[in-house]
Amino acid sequence: MITGSCLCGDISFATAAEPQGASMCHCGQCRRQSGGIWSSAHVPEAELTITGLVSWFAASDIAKRGFCARCGSFLFWKANDEDTISFSLGSVNGPTGLRLTKHIFVADKGDYYDIADDAPQKD
């Protein structure tokens, strides 16, 4: 079981599903919303239990981002046409047991850091 929460605790989540696609996103939207790189993994939406009121922001025509309106924690990313939901690995309580599988949107990464591991990189 993986559990997590926002900084203030108003929103929590849990899943017994095995998360897939652990990745670090370097896109401009994730950098602006999180203040850096956003790491996440996804599970089927039906397998994620969310407690608390998530505020959703339609960041584009294809996806929305879920966050806590009280503390601002960026917790979820959901494509409009998919049945999965990504959750922030940084918000997980305790070890995840996951390993990074890729870096995404590296063409948009900040110029102030280097990617120093050997995980695959996708522009």
From TrEMBL:
Keywords: Lyase, Metal-binding, Zinc. Residues 2-114 form the CENP-V/GFA domain. One of its GO terms (molecular function) is metal ion binding. InterPro entries: CENP-V/GFA (IPR006913), Mss4-like_sf (IPR011057). It comes from the Bacteria. SUPFAM superfamilies: Mss4-like (SSF51316). PANTHER family: CENP-V_GFA DOMAIN-CONTAINING PROTEIN-RELATED (PTHR33337:SF40), GFA DOMAIN-CONTAINING PROTEIN (PTHR33337). Belongs to the Gfa family. This is Uncharacterized conserved protein. It comes from Ruegeria marina.
